[in-house]
Amino acid sequence: MHIVKDDNDRRLAFKFGKDDIPKGLNFFSDDNDFIQIGTWNYDKGKQLLAHIHNEVPRQSLRTQEFIFLVQGSLKASIYDENEKHVEDVIVGVNEGMVMLAGAHGYEILEEDTIVIESKNGPYVGAEADRRRIE
User: What is the CATH number of domain 1-21+62-123?
Assistant: First the structure.
């Protein structure tokens, strides 16, 4: 797993791939992250019991974003809370990346790049949710 941190050792983003996924159920996110990212790695025949998630009040103070590369590649540029560029990370096929804090931008590096994106919701619209940086 590759973790991007700011000068204060705060996690801004992390990237993981297939080789980072151990057997069983594991989470890469911390319990207090607004987006929870976990992986399953089970053998054939494993059964997971049916369950329903209870309604539990939650508060999200910021949008956190997860991307997964199905095809192609991209460059994720990661910035801290002061809009200072921290690091560029290349994300390839079968890799996922989570943006936790600070800012980020993307550059698609290959034709026909396919990305799955997930964020915490509900969505409040672009004007309220984000602002562009230079």
Answer: 2.60.120.10
